[in-house]
Amino acid sequence: MKNFLNKIINGESLKILKDIPDNTFDLIFADPPYNLQINDNLRRPDDSKVNGVDDKWDKFSSFNDYDKFTVSWLKECKRVLKEDGSIWVIGSYHNIFRLGYHLQNLNYWILNDIIWRKNNPMPNFKGTRFTNAHETLIWASKNKKSKYTFNYQSLKCFNDDLQMRSDWKLPICNGKERLRKNGKKIHSTQKPESLLHRIILATTKRYDLVLDPFLGTGTTAVVSKKLGRRFTGIEKNKEYYRAAISRINKTKAIDENYLDTIQNNKSKPRIPFGSLVELGILKPGTTLFDAKRKFSAVVMVDGSIKHKQVEGSIHKIAAKIMGADSFNGWTYWHCKINGNTVLIDSLRQKFISEKNN
Fold first, then answer.
1. What would the 3-class secondary structure string for 164-220 be?
2. Are residues 189 and 292 in the same domain?
3. Does 263 fall in a domain?
4. Where are the alpha helices (DSSP H) in the chain?
5. pTM
6. 299 forms bridges with which residues in the sheet?
7. Does 277 lie in the same domain as 242?
8. 169, part of any domain
9. Which residues in the chain come in under a pLDDT of 70?
10. Is the same domain home to 249 and 326?
């Protein structure tokens, strides 16, 4: 497997995949041909030609041929995907429904569909349809029981403390990011780095191995390298392959000191607040307070806390103060330890240390 680590390979995806061992990759991002079925030259109202996707690699003789191709690569991807891995596939209305159908038939477990809303879509020049302003991504795990990676807390922080939604507004690849040769686009469907940044940040951990079986000009590998992930890419077009090699070689990884992501709350140890009292980490009578020191409560001997004349758990009292049905008391209450203000959530680690000694 070492021959595939942090490398891209020039060749047919299906042939290369067959040489890769089972259960190798943590994440797969697949941007396959869309089978756009474009027959006529598309022109603007001024009769100038639109440079759409008319590449030979996007043409199939029939839907049946496209389906056979799709099932073949999806089967191989499932084989090389780890049991707790996940896959992203992207498409337009031309192919995304066929992709979803085959994913389900192969017993992938669909987790979400994501709408990528484009800030700057190509207009509909003929005025015969709605402007096609989005593409669809399907995110699926290898099977229903997979314990896939989802960095929920990181995404929430990324999104100004709001849950990340399933509609993403991002620009298409343009400007300096768009690779060109003699003023002409090297690849007609180059994806923006911002899209892959969000996908890889959301569904991998540092050092995870990411596969892109249709690498194109290398966006997935470039973003993986930047984010401290390992990568494997496969691309059969020699011009795209050479462009990807050059691009990856110029890419610098982000300093490791800045690659940490926020740990999900559900992955933190679930311990009762009363255990901190039992171990003497927090003594009865300790005053707890919110971040602004506007509200306070006192720790009782049974692990409850008392705020004015109301007693209850750290969560119940925090919720009452906030006027909410529920609230996470671990991230609300602070206390003084050796003269320093600390969040009581940070005391969980001390509990773990005491428990293991």
1. CCCEEEECCCCHHHCCEECCEECCCCCCCHHHHHHHHHHHCCCCCEEEECCCCCCHH
2. no
3. no
4. 13-17, 63-80, 96-105, 152-158, 193-203, 219-226, 238-250, 273-278, 314-322, 347-356
5. 0.74
6. 305
7. no
8. yes
9. 1-2, 36-55, 57-58, 125, 265-270, 349-357
10. no
